[in-house]
Amino acid sequence: MSFSFEGDFKTRPKVSLGGASKKEEKASLLHRTQEERRKREDERRRLKNAIVIQSYIRGYHDRKQQYAIQRGNFDRCVCQTQSEGGPPMSDAASLSLLTRQLLFFYRQSEDSRRLVRTNIFWNFYGQLHPTCFSIFPRLLQTCKDDSLNVAVPMRMLEIFSSERTYLPVLEDMNCVASLIEQILHYMVQKGYYRSLYILVNHKLPSSLEYSDAPYGAHAIPLASTLLEHTLKPLNFTYSSCTTGARQFVFAAFTEEFTSAPFTEQIFHFFIPALSDPRLHFPFEAFLCSLQATIVSSAAALKRAPWLFYFVLSVGETCLGSLSEEGLQLYLRALQALLPLLPVSESTSRPEVISDSEDEEDTNTQAPSTQDDSYRISVQLITEECVHKLDTKQQTNALLNLVWRDSASEEVFTMMASICHTLMVQHRMMVPKVRLLYSLAFNARFLRHLWHLIQSMTTKMITGSMVPLLQVISRGSPMSLEDSNRIIPLFYLFSSLFSHSLISVHDSEFFGYPMEGHGHSNTTMMPFTLSELVNLSQLLRDACLGIIKLAYPETKTEHREEYMAAFRSVGVKTNTEVQQRIQAEQKRWVQLFKVITNLVKMVKARDIRRPFCPAGHWLSEEVNIRADKVTQLYVPSARHVWRTRRMGRIGPLQSTLDVGMEPPQLSVSEERHLAILTELPFVVPFEERVKIFQRLIYADKRDVQGDGPLLDGIIVTIRRNYIYEDAYDKLSPENEPDLKKRVRVHLLNAHGLDEAGIDGGGIFREFLNELLKSGFNPNQGFFKTTNEGLLYPSPTAQMLVGDSFARHYYFLGRILGKALYENMLVELPFASFFLSKLLGTSADVDIHHLASLDPEMYRNLLFLKSYEDDVEDLGLNFTIVNNDLGEAQVVELKPGGKDIPVSTANRIAYIHLVADYRLNKQIRPHCLAFRQGLANVVNLEWLRMFDQQEIQVLISGAHVPICLDDLKTFTNYSGGYTATHPVITIFWEVVESFTDEEKRKLLKFVTSCSRPPLLGFKELYPAFCIHNGGNDLERLPTASTCMNLLKLPEFCDQHLMRNKLLYAIESSAGFELS
């Protein structure tokens, strides 16, 4: 046996090569590490919390021990003084030490007697030391506990703030006032009003209300005392204190008392009490200090409703005592606070306001002393503010301020800013607000406002002064200061003038003398017609300038790296700047809307009775041409046309449906689109017609394509039942898309096929006859005015039953098809009906009544200006319909037959009568017709034209026929040429015709007496003269479906003239080829 010893005297442990060497998974390792880290963090937190708790407990015990020590020292000192039997303590140093001790340990529940003893010492000493000043807010703050008695601290406050306390000692009223000022100022610095706020809400019952009795005679003495102490600091000048002391006192009163959420006690007692003129609240001084207090911040937004309500409440009773400067301060306060007022209930929720501040005393608490359920809601305060602002007294005070001759630009600007905020931010309508309504019908105010707008200037880089209106018209960017000056004024003027124009009938507008008995010649028009011409031009240019601002030539883009670099050095970028830009742009868009509305109203008057020179509405700054290459005709851009609406311009508008690619429009194309949708009348009519036809052509190309001629809709129509068959075959159920090609197969009276294949001519003839039949008054769907103009018949429902709306929808589609096919039809419509089709609303105003019933319009104008007793006329709120020989009395409002028309309500009666005749009676008819029209033609495209221009678009222009143009675009067939002797004689004869005879010839051949809008080159098929044979006994005949004249070979000029006149006068020879 052999042994081998290698020097190892210890047995080595055996190492297992199995599981022990297995590596721990990464996720498990990370989890274990995180868990260990969390445990260490929890341990550190527990240790820290233990230290804090122990520190607090030790501090609490130490404070309690020190309180006991100092309370014992205080008692020993007082006992020593009393045991000596001498006079009370009279050493100032000892008294100060005693007072500091009291301030240190004072608790009202334990130390009230010690406080009284200290008060006795100070009274005996006869002088005060600043050390005792700070005791008063401390005492008031302790009164928040309902179980504590406030008599002692309130008595202390009354004594130390009373002149009677110091006057016997100081014997100088000025010194006494100075001393009290210093006391009150020091107390306000230490939270005097915040403590009063707490005391009021905890010690006064919530049911307490302010009565009309003198404030000293209230049932609760504490209420009168608190009211007196609230007013006392406000009635001193603080001349002996540091500069700004009085401002500080008013600021503290504003922020800690009137801007905090109102409780029932504040709302029902303190606000009415401070509004009582007998208490002489220093309202003007308060307004003066308020200017420095109001700032636009989150805190200001929270406290604005309460402060605004307080200002309005006191203003209701104190406006009469304010000086002119005070009234301007009041106006400035309204201007600053109104934008901070919440707008709607969704945004007007009660806010918890914390007034906690860092105080020397750690026991000071914020005035959030009651549950929110005891507070007046923000929504209620907001509604009360709006109501108070609209009271008669408030309105009269504000109106007197702007109506006086000495009113400055600043006053007008502030008033405009207030009204602008009411209309834009709070969305209040002019008729609903007494202030706005009164201003709208004051011609002098509107004139002054417009002259002020015109006189506003700004200094350019070159140093020259340029009118702000000119800057707007150029589309130049404007500084925020300048825009704040002019936008409210411009918005207010446009809104008020627009509203006043609604009530100004044409006789007043044009300055015609009133006719009839007892009429007043006063007018509400602030401008003459010549002034309106210049004003409308400036307004038009301003609108065009705002469009330029909405679509600037260049758009600045910055990369994110640059934005980060700017933010790193404190430069505001991206979000802040973008929000500010969008807010400013929104103001311009709102201004654009009201100015455009005013321009359109003036333009409507000019359409009814022209007073502007020819070409007045056209702008040299606009160069829109239909033949220019543009993206406006691509499908997505045509969809933008469909979704444009009044006043919605610029990037703020979302115009496309989800899934549709937005058109890539250039800046100029965006501007052109905005002009054509909002201010189309600045573009010449001919160019707009070309644009309309290009839009139709582009749409037709997408719908009809380039397929075979026979593709599309094919219908068979009986000639004797054109309307009935078309109504059935072309209904929306059978043919939902009427934009497709329509081919017509006609049957004669015997039911046999008529010869010919429809290549477009037969359809046009069919469409022409269909429109004549459908709009024929004998059909029952349309009536005519005294001037022979068509409008929907109110009795249609009585004729065809509930399906009447389907007939109007059908007729609208057919008229749309005529426009879509560029076909002229002689259908003279009433202007009010065309206005209803074009407007964004289906209703029109009273000014259109003259085109429907001139006699009723004159009677209503007579009633409006009747100066005698209106009730003598025996009218009530009813109207009589005489439909189909049956009289029916209709009430204009519920119970109208029992409501007599009087001087007070005659304006409402006039508008209700006009609304019934123009709108209510035929509303379903017009809506159905408009829907049918829109089914074929985009109404936005038609809105490029006014009602007169639409009539021209439908029927053609009533202009002399240009024979040279007709000759140029006339074709010849059957052996005729332009130089043929018969053709030469024909043109010589036609040239000798009167204009009326030329129209009859054109109607004879084309079925329309008016030439195409853009000349005979647009006539399709082209005007053609065909050889009608050599039988001289025959009359000329025409195939209107092909615009074809069949002219026999008349070689004698006299014979040619007689035959042509006979044919066109008798309308002989109408046939289909």
TrEMBL record:
The lineage of its organism: Eukaryota, Metazoa, Chordata, Craniata, Vertebrata. Pathway: Protein modification; protein ubiquitination. Signal peptide: none annotated. GO terms for biological process: protein polyubiquitination; ubiquitin-dependent protein catabolic process. Interacts with 26S proteasomes. Interacts (via the HECT domain) with UBE2D1 and, less efficiently, with UBE2L3. Belongs to the UBE3C family. The gene is UBE3C. Residues 734-1073 form the HECT domain. Residues 21-44 have a biased composition (Basic and acidic residues). The active site is at residue 1041. It is an enzyme of class 2 (transferase). Residues 1-44, 348-371 are annotated as: Disordered. SUPFAM superfamilies: Hect, E3 ligase catalytic domain. This is Ubiquitin-protein ligase E3C. SMART domains: HECTc, IQ. GO terms for molecular function: ubiquitin protein ligase activity. The keyword Ubl conjugation applies. The keyword Transferase applies. Keywords: Isopeptide bond, Transferase, Ubl conjugation, Ubl conjugation pathway. Its EC number is 2.3.2.26. It catalyses: S-ubiquitinyl-[E2 ubiquitin-conjugating enzyme]-L-cysteine + [acceptor protein]-L-lysine = [E2 ubiquitin-conjugating enzyme]-L-cysteine + N(6)-ubiquitinyl-[acceptor protein]-L-lysine.
